[in-house]
Amino acid sequence: MSTTTVEPSGPAGTPPERTGLSPRKRRRISLGIQYAIGLVVLVALVIVIDWGQVGEHFFDPDEIVKLFPNIFLIAMKNTVIYTVSAYVVGFALGLVVALMRLSSVKIYRWIALVYVEIFRGLPALLVLMIIGFGLPMALGVQMPFDIYGKVAIGLGLAASAYMAETFRAGIEAVPKGQVEAARSLGMSQSRAMVTIVVPQALRIVIPPLTNELVLLFKDSSLVSALGITAATVELTKFGSDMGITAGDTTPMIVAGMSYLVITVPLGIAVRKLEARQRKGR
User: Fold this and answer.
1) Which domains can be identified in the chain, with CATH numbers?
2) Confidence at residue 169, expressed as pLDDT on a 0 to 100 scale
3) Of 104, 188, 200, 205, which residue is least crowded by CB atoms under 10 Å?
4) pTM score over 0.90
5) Quick check: 273 and 206 in contact, CB under 8 A?
C-alpha cells in the first residue's frame, strides 16, 4: 500500500506561515481603541461644555462662602451623629439576632429569621417613618433624645437585619475545630462562642461592616422626612434648602462633596482591609 504525504507550503524546511493576530496583539489593539474612544469623548466634552456657566451655577465662590461654617458645625455634625448612633444600634441588635439565628433553641431561630426578613424587606424610609410618626401617634410612645433617638432606632433597625446576616456569615466562617477545642478545655458552648468565635468572626466581617457604615452615612439623608429643624438639619437637607434659597446648585454640589470627604476614605479603607484578608489566606 502506498501512502501520500502532503508537503507544507513554502520553501523546504521552513514552517508554514501563521495567519491572524495573536491574542496579546488583539488585546492591545482593543485597549488602544477603547482609550482612543475615551479620549475623543473627553475632548468633545471639554470643547462643548460651557465652563463659564458650569462655574457660575455649580461652583459659585460667593455661594460657597455662605455655607460656612454651618455646613460643618451643624449639617455635617448632625449627619455624623445620626450615622454613628444608628450604626451602634444596628451593630448591637445585629449581633444579638445573629446569635439567635445560630442558637440551638428553635424558637430563637424562627424569631431571628422573621426579624431579618421583615427589616430587610421594608424600605429604610418606611421603618424610619413608622418609628418617627407611627408609634407616637398610635401608642403615644416618645423616643428618647427626640429626633436623634428616632433616627438611631429607625435606621438602626433597618441596618441591624443586614448586619445580622453579615455576623452570621462571619461566625459560620470560623472553623468548627475552634469550638471543639474550647469545649475540650471545659468551656461551655456560650462561653466558647463569646470568647473564641465572636472575636474571630468580627475580624472577618470588618470590611462588610465598614461598607454598612458607608451606606448608613448616605441613608442619613432620609432623616429629612421626619421634619427636621434648622438645628437638626443634615447635609442633604441643608444643601437643598440653601440651593433653593440661592436659586443655585452650588450648595448641593458642596453638600455632595462633604459626603465624599467621609465615604471615599472609608471605601479605600474597605479595599485595603479586604486585600489584607486575602493575603492572610
Assistant:
1) 61-280 (1.10.3720.10)
2) 92
3) 104
4) no
5) yes
